[in-house]
Amino acid sequence: MNLPIYLDNNATTPMDPRVLEAMLPYFNQKFGNAASRNHAFGWAAEEGVDYSREQVAKLIGANEKEIIFTSGATESDNLAIKGVFEMYKDKGNHIITCVTEHKAILDACKHVEKLGGTVTYLPVKEDGLVDLDLLESSITDKTILVTIMYGNNEIGVIQPVKEIAAIAHKHGALFFTDATQAVGKIPVNVLEDGIDLLAFSAHKMYGPKGVGALYVRRKNPRVKVTAQMDGGGHERGMRSGTLNVPGIVGFGKACELCRLEMADEAKRLSALRDKLQASLTQMEESYVNGNVEHRLPHVANISFKYVEGEGLMMAMKDLAVSSGSACTSASLEPSYVLKSLGLSDDLAHSSIRFGLGRFTTEEEVDYAIEQTKKAVNHLRDLSPLWEMFKEGIDLDKVEWVEH
Amino acid sequence: MAYSEKVIDHYTNPRNVGTLDKSSSKVGTGLVGAPECGDVMRLQIEVDENHVITDAKFKTFGCGSAIASSSLATEWLKGKTIDDAVKIDNMDIVEELALPPVKIHCSVLAEDAIKAAINDYRVKNGLEALVEEKAHH
């Protein structure tokens, strides 16, 4: 077992060696521009892209003509939201999203507001899921788009995407989902789920960084987005720019592997995750954040009360995890996702996200359990709050000297 | 962000962790910060009849830099008179631990904790509380 152990697979994943192998010829042998129509170099590159497009489409149950390659999920999110707003602004100017979305969605929505759009940011329930009745009652005759993520990046909860899509369609709105954390981990099917636009990214599923896609439905209904990048008219005019051929080839290979291995892998990972979670929640005053029934198989977000997340991560120095603690961000604010579940700031400060992946072994999980327990105990020995809790003092009644 | 060696040393082997009897008239206790802010420090001093600090203990809820700042503070306090102790400046801690700008608030908290502990001792022993307060941020 090599240290440190990587348990931050929601941030990014290591590339699968099979993906790397597929990409290598496209750097120096098949290096052509996929848009060069008149020579063998261009054709070889185009062939690689075509095959990849099929693999990417197949993973989400789409047609290959519905895949627009981008630089990643952030670009796909921007293209979907700004592109739909621009394309459909004569129909209406209202977009519905929710507060636990990724910043790429929230900030693209803020941009739309500056352009004259109105955006409703739905709250979530305590378990992190969207309230469907509230969603439906928020729709107006001006609503053109509902955008709700598939699986959450911090707590892993899976939204009722199919039901959300049905509500959007019933009222004539399009449904877009940022499925970056879900695609390749759980079955996602754009037809069965009724998804009109879907964003995802290669590096979250053992592919390379710098490449992603936006699925744009072509039938029932035919959806269009206004291009946000002007140029040579690549990707059916929706995203200009020379294609990142090695990246796209790697993305295709990554999708193919996920499609073939996902079912077994999800079982293996959820067993490991459950083991980790069960062991860690045996400790006093530790809590799982978010819905545990509707959750990605490889994620557990756990708060260890009375210890602070960054301090805790420092004690878990052989584990690469992440925390919702303020100290890990530039803003000095704890995670907005955890706060929107109604978690108090101190519990948000105490959270650790464990993200397992394809290369995580049981031995590593056992080691992580042991290290985490040791770290939590060490920090609780140092914690005045833990001592006060043990003495039976109600911390909510203490008058704190805020600074 | 990488931590300095001194922060890691204090964090891994914190000095003077513990609890003094806060009801004793010789003991001054400072509890500063708030759980919502992600850091709480409790610093305690035991003072002899010559106003010399004979013992110091801490417990801290917070990041590595907050733990290291309070650990360092307890080391510095021992053997000082309360009048000298009050002169410890947060920037001395910043310098000693090589704290980056984003962690300066940890040192401010440690200075506040020192002052709060000294004031608690002073008030308990019929001395005037010090009013000098650092500008909070």
Structure characteristics:
heterodimer, A: 403 residues, alpha/beta, Aspartate Aminotransferase, domain 1, Aspartate Aminotransferase, domain 2, 2 domains, 14 helices, 13 strands, B: 137 residues, alpha+beta, 3 strands, 40% helix, iron-sulfur cluster binding (chain B)
Query: What percent of residues of chain A adopt helix (DSSP H or I)?
Result: 25-40%
CATH homologous superfamily heading of the largest domain in chain A? Type I PLP-dependent aspartate aminotransferase-like (Major domain)
How would you describe the shape of chain B? Answer: globular
Beta content of chain B comes to: 15-25%
**Element order of chain B: H for helix, E for strand:** HEEEHHHH
Termini distance of chain A?
Answer: 43 Å
- Output the radius of gyration of chain B: 14 Å
Major sheet: arrangement of strands of chain A = 2-8-7-6-5-3-4
Secondary-structure class of chain B: alpha+beta
Dominant shape of chain A: globular
| Spatial order of the strands forming the largest sheet of chain B | 1-2-3
Instruction: Using the coordinates shown, work out and report the CATH topology of chain B.
Output: Sufe protein. Chain: A
- How many individual domains of chain B? 1
Order of helices and strands of chain A: EHHHEHEHEHEHEHEEHEEHEEHHEHH
Number of strands of chain B: 3
Q: Total number of β-strand segments of chain A?
A: 13
Total tally of structural domains of chain A: 2
Note the beta-strand portion of chain A: 5-15%
How would you characterize the largest beta sheet of chain A? 7 strands, mixed
Known CATH architecture of the largest domain in chain A: 3-Layer(aba) Sandwich
- Summarize the amount of helix of chain B as a percent range: 40-55%
Family (chain A): Belongs to the class-V pyridoxal-phosphate-dependent aminotransferase family. NifS/IscS subfamily.
Keywords (chain A): 2Fe-2S, Cytoplasm, Iron, Iron-sulfur, Metal-binding, Pyridoxal phosphate, Transferase
Subcellular location (chain A): Cytoplasm
Protein name (chain A): Cysteine desulfurase IscS
